[in-house]
Amino acid sequence: SMNEEQEWLALGAEYVMIDTDASPVNPSNTDSSHPRAFGAFPRVIAKYVREDSVLSLEDAVHRMSSMAARRLGLHDRGIIAPGMLADLVVFDPEQIRDMAEFGAGATRYAEGVDYLFVNGIPVIDDRDLMDVMPGRVLRRGQ
Fold it and tell me: What is the pTM of this model?
């Protein structure tokens, strides 16, 4: 774990991307989940963009999407353009925040997410969670 000064220092480096090492989890299994599996990216926007003003919204989104996709060799993701797979989050930057906590609350979904598309398929539609799982394992260069 890093202290806040170290976090700010790291985020000040333009080459630092933002990602998470959370393992895939079943939302109904709260015993083995870490809160960051459900709240890492909303926390970045709430804390480092909105509250602390360490990053601009555009920079945070870039570091969590296109920068991370390029670094991981995921050439069909990370930007909105023809021919790219549509992994998109539509959120309210003034409302988004992580709700996950250790223990029974580890799988709480973030607030402020209106729509979520994975491979072009709606997973959250007008704040309602759909009963679909269009994601798949991604490997470098695929």
Answer: 0.86
Which residue range forms the structural domain that includes residue 39?
A: 4-81+93-112
The answer as to whether 128 is a domain residue is no
Distance CA(98)–CA(115), nearest Å, equals 16
Q: What Cα–Cα distance (Å) separates residue 55 from each residue in 16, 30, 46, 86?
A: 12, 31, 11, 25
Please answer whether residues 74 and 64 qualify as being in contact, where contact means their C-beta atoms are separated by less than 8 angstroms.
no
For residue 42, is it within any domain? yes
Does 64 fall in a domain? Answer: yes
CA distance 80 to 110: 23
Quick check: is 142 in a domain? Answer: no
How many secondary structure helices (H) and strands (E) does the chain include? 4, 4
Instruction: For residue 28, count other CB atoms closer than 10 A to its CB.
Output: 7
CB 45 within 8 A of CB 57: yes
In this predicted model, what pLDDT tens digit does every residue of 117-140 receive, in sequence order? 999 999 999 999 999 989 888 888
Count of domains forming the chain: 1
